[in-house]
Design brief:
Layout lengths: L1 H52 L5 H52 L8 H35 L1
Helix pairs in contact: 1-2, 2-3
InterPro entries: bMERB_dom, F-actin_Monoox_Mical
Organism: Onychorhynchus coronatus
Pfam family, one: bMERB_dom
Length: about 150
Amino acid sequence: YPTCEHTLARRAREAHMKRFCKAQAIQRRLEEIEVTFRELEQEGIKLEKLLRDEKGSPADQQTQWTNQLLYLVQKKNSLMIEESDLMIAVQELKLEEQQWQLDKKLRSYMNREETLKTPEDCKAEQETLAQLLKVVNERNLLIHIQEEKRLSEL
């Protein structure tokens, strides 16, 4: 089945490239969030100094500074939530890649004739299957965590 194998190999490469591109996009966004965290931190420090040092300033000015500070805290919290979601996505991509590798390995064992398998091959096949089940359960747990987060945010 050379055509089928060629198609499967092409699809596997496409899926791998898709995961790679997604991982790169996540990494870029995490770096952007880190930069934004630093900027928000610096701006927050300035506002805190203004609030502490300028006790004689008008009340409306202090209220404005306080509101700006609260806005910064709110923005930082939303970025932390996004960062947490991205870290879960990174873990999910790693597990997806592991699952693909283990699935490929398991298929190679399963495609062999039973009569040609050595006891070591049978043992390796069982171990690979156990690892694959573990990865699937970990992915399921991540999906459950994401669903709980989504429901709690609603």
